[in-house]
Design brief:
- The chain starts with a helix and ends in a 7-residue tail after the last helix.
- It is globular, with a radius of gyration of 19 Å.
- It is 62% helix and 1% strand.
- The protein has 291 residues and is mainly alpha-helical.
- It has a two-stranded antiparallel sheet.
């Protein structure tokens, strides 16, 4: 577990460093930029729409094919297998910002040092902690589905595919091995690095800085920057107030691309029973969601 976490953190960082070296040496072409942005959006959506809103919180329903696609894209983000990710996140919601929360930034001491230690722990340090013995109880529902067990078990394969796709596209478009290498670096490793630190910031920064329009027992906050960069996940106080809602950006100006994708799926008949907060709950601050 610890060696795997170290590998998953360091290798994308090295890839990002290599991308910067190439950037200074030859600049960034449209192929590399397209692969970086395209793979970033797809794999972040795999986490936000798939891992988080669909599988963890059951905020909408969809068919097996879409489930498989979303789970595969989420796996390509290299944040752990589907079942493992869901178990940790459900534990986070059960114990949000208490000492039993796996990645709260609020229990690492006082003062500036405590703040810095808390940020490190919430952002990445918690990956190196041992798993509690009862994690399986959080995913009993997912384990009942053979497809989801299969997709989760094939996590290494999905990660490899997520690296090979941009390498293959880069090579085919440019017709060179250098194009394939740059596709691997920009659309693969550097993209994973950016996805990691943007989505992990929801654990750290969005429990420290931002607005709190809804009162809750934790320190979740809405942060505009990560509302945009994390495709809607940065509206974190909204989410903790209405955890089963498919929509996190509850005001017109709160950009929530992940919800737009869910709505698009619904319009195409590929998503149904999409849960959003009732107007009464929004006006009173009650934590409730309805179809």
């Amino acid at each position: 577990m610890r060696l795997g976490s170290l590998f998953a953190i360091i290798v994308p960082f090295l890839g990002f460093a290599a991308a910067i070296v190439f950037l200074w040496g030859r600049g960034m072409g449209w192929v590399e930029l397209g692969l970086l942005l395209g793979m970033y959006v797809l794999t972040v959506l795999g986490i936000t729409v798939g891992y988080h809103r669909l599988f963890t919180h059951r905020s909408f329903e969809t068919n097996r094919i879409v489930q498989c696609i979303l789970a595969g894209l989420g796996s390509m983000a290299l944040q752990g297998s589907l079942l493992n990710w869901v178990a940790w996140h459900r534990r986070h919601h059960q114990h949000s910002d208490t000492p039993d929360d796996p990645h709260s930034p609020h229990h690492q001491g006082k003062g500036l040092l405590g703040l810095l230690r808390g940020m490190w722990h919430a952002h990445v340090g918690w990956f190196f902690k041992a798993d509690p013995p009862d994690m399986g109880r959080y995913i009993k529902d997912l384990r009942e589905c053979r497809l989801l067990r299969w997709v989760s078990a094939l996590f290494p394969m999905w990660v490899a595919i997520g690296l090979l796709i941009p390498a293959a596209i880069g090579g085919l478009v440019t017709g060179t091995w250098m194009g394939a290498l740059l596709g691997l670096i920009w659309g693969g490793l550097a993209r994973i690095f950016l996805v990691h630190h943007v989505t992990w910031s929801v654990n750290s920064i969005c429990h420290l800085w931002g607005g709190r329009p809804f009162q809750s027992d934790d320190h979740s906050r809405n942060n505009f920057l990560f509302g945009v960069l994390a495709l809607g996940e940065g509206w974190h106080n909204n989410h903790h107030a209405f955890p089963t809602s498919a929509r996190h950006g509850l005001r017109w100006w709160q950009v929530d691309i992940s919800y737009w994708v869910i709505r698009a799926l619904a319009l195409c008949g590929l998503a149904w029973k999409v849960r959003v907060p009732a107007k009464l709950a929004l006006s009173t601050g009650q934590s409730a969601a309805q179809t």
